[in-house]
Amino acid sequence: MTHDHAPAHPATPRRRLAIAFAITATILVAEVIGALWTGSLALLADAGHMLTDAGGLLMALAAASLALRPPTSQRTWGWRRAEVLAAGAQATVLLGVGLFALVEGVRRLAEPPEVTATGLLVFGVVGLVGNVASLLVLSGGRGANLNMRAAFLEVVNDALGSVAVIVSAVLIATLGWNRADAVAGMLIALLILPRAVTIIREAGNVLLESTPKGLDLGEVRRHILAVPHVRGVHDLHASQITTGLPVLSAHVVVDDSCFTNGHAGEMLAELQQCVAEHFELGVEHTTFQLEPQSHAARERHLHE
């Protein structure tokens, strides 16, 4: 027995993403020009970061549109997982950018090139202003799903990267310490890498159909077994189709009498209500197979 597969789902605010993409793309062009003009690794790393962000926001927009497509007989959940795939791809590219900036920063510490401090400062301020504007646009929708969260975190780290660029420009201008640029580039890389790994891990958990974070299957089992007339639970599985859409299935062994006195339907409602109300995630998409105790001999493979 199942619920309808078209629930209220945290939709991606596409207008916010579109505005953030326009701002990010503008900053990207400015920082590429600035990196070429000043010879700055910090600005180059931040431009690479912005390139990844612009691509990520574009993928997020595409994923948000795909997620609105209705289910079909071939794709019974529609394109709901498009946002997870987009977030994973976005973070993978970001991981590469971070590793490059880290390696290049180490090289530049040994051989620091000349960097134009004034230009570096100007483009750092431009980047920071643009990032703050993007943050204001995205902040209202950052909790919608993994895709929006990834996009918001991208811009947060961009803003920190712009701060690092500004600080390095000030140090170069006042102290003549050209290695500040390499240090800033490496700091930006260190901001990038943990975030990229986290998003890749979370997207991977969804794609591998791991049990959703915050859902204890042992506790679910205990709640189901506490329902009157339930004699056993097996083949209990829980996964997540996309952000905010957990699903659960189980074979529930009940008294044989439930199938003769018409109580099976009432039990199904009790089980669905149990997992929908007793857990933080509020699992509303459930599939319960009710089985009489006499059915156990016909089960070829039992999975606890």
Would you give an account of this structure?
The chain is elongated, with a radius of gyration of 26 Å. Helix 1 (14-38) runs antiparallel to helix 4 (117-138), helix 2 (41-67) packs antiparallel against helix 3 (82-110) and helix 5 runs antiparallel to helix 6. Strands 1-2-3 form a three-stranded mixed beta sheet, covered by helices on one side. It has two domains: 14-207, Cation efflux protein transmembrane domain (Alpha-lytic protease prodomain-like); 217-298, 2-Layer Sandwich (Alpha-Beta Plaits). By secondary structure, the chain is mostly helical. The two termini are 20 Å apart. The chain has helices spanning 14-38, 41-67, 82-110, 117-138, 146-175, 179-207, 217-225, 264-277, and strands at residues 230-240, 246-254, 285-292. Helices cover 61% and strands 9% of the residues. Strand 2, helix 8 and strand 3 (285-292) form a beta-alpha-beta unit.
Question: Which superfamily, in CATH terms, is the homologous superfamily of the largest domain?
Answer: Cation efflux protein transmembrane domain
Mean pLDDT: 80
- The count of strands amounts to 3
Ranges where pLDDT stays below 50 over 5 or more residues in a row are 1-11
Provide keyphrases for this structure.
single chain; 304 residues; mainly alpha; Alpha-lytic protease prodomain-like; Alpha-Beta Plaits; 3-stranded mixed beta sheet; 8 helices; elongated; disordered N terminus
